[in-house]
Write a structure and sequence with these properties.
CATH architecture: Alpha-Beta Barrel
Oligomer: single chain
CATH topology: TIM Barrel
Strand content: 15-25%
Bound molecules: 2-phosphoglycolic acid
Helix content: 40-55%
Shape: globular
Number of strands: 8
Largest sheet: 8 strands, parallel, barrel
Distance between the termini: 14 Å
Length: 249
């Protein structure tokens, strides 16, 4: 059985007091024991968030990390720094990082290698843009993103990888992929993994869907056979909404 996972991506939102309150509110909610729960907070709150969640079912994740182990990289954060504050999971490759910070597949491959070398777990984000969906190249685009950033890995390294398919046209737009569109792409991703590795590996990888998931649509999306959870942006900033999405499985 694959893990069901719901991860919140807070992006660059909330002040310190709001961050602490949201975590306390989440801790007070009943969250399904069948679902793994993670929150990717802004980097400045990670240490506090890791302490706040230490005895809870909530894991804390970084939104990004640098590909170097250490050095003269002003403003950046390394894998070992994250681990030293109790953070063992990071998002990589979010479409906003790709679009606004010029993160390429090649750079992401380097970040993936550094994260794995440091024993981090990765929630690897990818997905097509609207024009790519309209021109029906979305399957090829996604295959290429996976190949360039991840297919150099050994099968054994995939135990540390969670995939998050996020069609860019559905992120923060209120436009959600239909459950059928999500299922179709997730099945494609699993088929590509099976072709590159084998069926056992493909069946073992949790593939999350992201893009305007809300309490109102979570159940339908999560009921698809190849959708193993969600990466939640806007709706992860409200404890009630995020808990409702976690409990939608
Ligand atoms: P959204 O963001 O839920 O606000 O669309 C998802 C994401 O960017 O991970």
């Amino acid at each position: 059985m694959r893990n069901h996972i719901v991860a919140g991506n807070w992006k660059m939102n909330l002040n310190a007091a709001e961050s602490q309150k949201l975590i306390e509110d989440l801790k007070s909610k009943k969250l399904s024991s069948d679902v793994r729960v993670a929150i990717a907070t802004p980097a400045v709150y990670l240490a506090t968030a890791a302490n706040q969640t230490a005895n809870s079912k909530i894991d804390v994740a970084a939104q990004n990390m640098h590909q170097a182990d250490s050095g003269a990289f002003t403003g950046e954060i390394s894998a070992s720094m994250l681990k030293s504050i109790g953070v063992h999971t990071t998002l990589l490759g979010h479409s906003e990082r790709r679009a606004y910070f010029h993160e390429t597949d090649e750079l992401l491959a380097a970040k993936v290698n550094t994260a794995l070398k440091n024993g981090m777990e990765i929630i690897f984000c990818f997905g097509e843009e609207l024009d790519e969906r309209k021109s029906e190249s979305h399957f090829d685009v996604v295959t290429t993103q996976l190949r360039n950033a991840l297919f150099h890995l050994d099968a054994s390294q995939w135990s540390q990888i969670i995939l998050a398919y996020e069609p860019v046209w559905a992120i923060g737009t209120g436009e959600t992929a239909s459950p059928e569109q999500a299922q179709e792409m997730h099945a494609h991703i699993r088929a590509v993994l099976a072709a590159q590795y084998d069926d056992a590996l493909a069946q073992s990888i949790s593939i999350l869907y992201g893009g305007s998931v809300k309490p109102a649509n979570a159940q339908e999306i999560f009921s698809q056979p190849d959708v193993d959870g969600g990466l939640i942006g806007g709706a992860s900033l409200k404890a009630d909404d995020f808990a409702a999405i976690v409990n939608a499985f």
